[in-house]
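U., I forgot to send this yesterday:
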Amino acid sequence: MRTPKTLATSLLALSAAALLALSAAGAATAAPAPGKAPTETSGVTSHTVTETGAADYWTEERMRNAIPGDILAGKAMQRANNSKAALNRPVEAGAPSRIEAAGTSTAAGAAAAAPAAGAAPGLQAPDVQTRANASESPVPRIGKVFFTLGGANYVCSGNSVSAGNKSTVSTAGHCVNEGPGAFATKFTFVPAYLNGSAPYGKWTARALYAPTQWSSSGNMQYDTGFAVMSTLNGQYLSDVVGSSGLQFNAARGLSYKAYGYPAAAPFNGESLKSCSGTATNDPYNPQFNSQGIPCNMTGGSSGGPWFIGTSSSGYQNSVNSYGYGSNSTTMYGPYWGSVIQSTYTSAAAS
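Result:
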């Protein structure tokens, strides 16, 4: 069995300063995140955020210098390898179901939330690019996620998804919880991030959700999390940037287009990238039940959405989770079955 290497640990040539920061983070014992104690309901663990000032904390400098969150996935994998009890179980699957996308509440917002124009020619074609790292114009629903864990600042990717609360963001499980361990603090979503700018503002979380299989054991089968955002200037997130539809318990082997903000070389995390291809099962760790598509996005793209089809207008059906080796040409994402659906349902109803 091949031991997985996360995108950040395998593809990022860390600077001395980053190594020192990681050493400090790894050596520290993560303090519980401020707020109410995590609660567990029917396989879902949630954390209520009570801290304030997260948006102001994320200055342009801190956003640029945040560590790709894939390093946290690597730590979770190591912990999971030391405890096999949670692995080698099939992903729970139920009847296929869809949640429809929701638009913005204003004409200006609706125009902004439409699929981005101006991408390089041919990006919407279904042809597989085996080392795809296509550049994309910003998509208002898709953005960067910033948070702290163990005293270190991290960055992932995320997406605004359709929900009754009009405030839900999808990302990777390791971007909301250590797996197992503490929940993130200072969790902030910056939709349509581009070169340090926050054109739709910085949205802070009021609650974080993860499958208990992730929060209790770091099981890679369930590497998905959801954040419920506070209102900003009296507005709900999806009213401003729109939201994507979702699909759970879908067939395997579909064609996808994935998005994210890779920050490790040869990328810098300052603009949106994409990959396209047909999903295949992970041959190295089949117990993860993950699927992979042709992609060489690197650390920082964790949590970026996978859309069924060839554009960001499709149903979201997974997130960027992990890759193998320094020359990886495949990005793997978790299968969205009944457990992840329950996690979404809990977050969307909060």
